[in-house]
Amino acid sequence: MSSRTTLSRFLIEQTRAHQTPAELRFLIEVVGRACKVINYHIGKGELGGALGNQGTENVQGEMQKKLDVISNEILLEANEWGGHLAGMASEEMEKPYQIPGCFPKGSYLLVFDPLDGSSNIDINVSVGTIFSVLSCPERADICGILEDEDFLQPGVKQVAAGYAIYGPQTMLVLTLGNGVKGFTLDSEMGSFVLTHDNMTIPEASAEFGINMSNMRHWEEPVQRYVNEMLAGKEGPLGKDYNMRWTASMVADIHRILVRGGVFMYPWDRRMDKDKGKLRLMYEANPMAMIVEQAGGAATNGRIRIMDVRPEKLHERVPVFMGSKQEVERITKYHKEKA
Length: 338
Ligand SMILES: O=P(O)(O)OC[C@H]1O[C@](O)(COP(=O)(O)O)[C@@H](O)[C@@H]1O
Ligand SMILES: [Mg+2]
Ligand SMILES: [Mg+2]
Hints:
31% of the residues lie in helices and 22% in strands.
């Protein structure tokens, strides 16, 4: 009997250890399978005609990549008939996706960013898929249409969160609320195998990730924080910091789960008040749950991201997440300025 723990076996063990409902287990399995299919299309690249623009815009006014649309369809198709979902919402769709038919639906809502890091697709840099699982509010009418409001639950309500990273290795990183696990895709077996048993983020770090080209637009607390790091050991922090930015949130957060650091996408003067670039429901919330479950912290500069009350399905939020000490420092600088 192989001692390697596949995703399926891990989920069964979770059911025994933590009473994880069979429906949730099935949901994670289906999402895992969909990510394997997405991985196949990404791996084919131009051979499969999957690179380049789709020629359409999504609800955020962003030019969609072909793989944004392909990945979205793969996740919808895989999850539509399983009976485990009441509905879905995606970065690439303005409104929630209704599970067709009049019959009792599943207990869960799946919210996802089908392809994260889209600007990196055509240059062969790691991209990912991010997902968040919520419970579906009680519904009288089984034929009832799902409204945006059904999804607008704060991050603390998530029952699971995860991401797939399509890089030199393809991995699935997952939390069900008791720690963070990483599974590597064994392409021969076609299974995700547990390789990172208890991913944790060191409290202290000397590495940060931010798009530096936006510096002139940032608020004072962010300018101060980044300048102090750039000042290195001669500066007030007394240590040298390294900088990394891949422009794929999944890849930047994965780096932090493996070796620590802080990831930032702050508000800047070009944006709507108190908003950011990254989306609360399918980027910030799932990543915040994973980061906190790994011992890190995640705020919008002022409060815990998972305490933010969502108002809109595609709303944006400033993001500071990673090693606790660094996130606490940048949050303190914002509070001092408030
Ligand atoms: O291009 P910028 O400003 O560096 O922004 C990069 C950020 O935008 C994103 O690509 C947005 O995500 P999508 O690709 O899913 O739209 C993040 O993954 C990444 O952190
Ligand atoms: Mg994204
Ligand atoms: Mg995306």
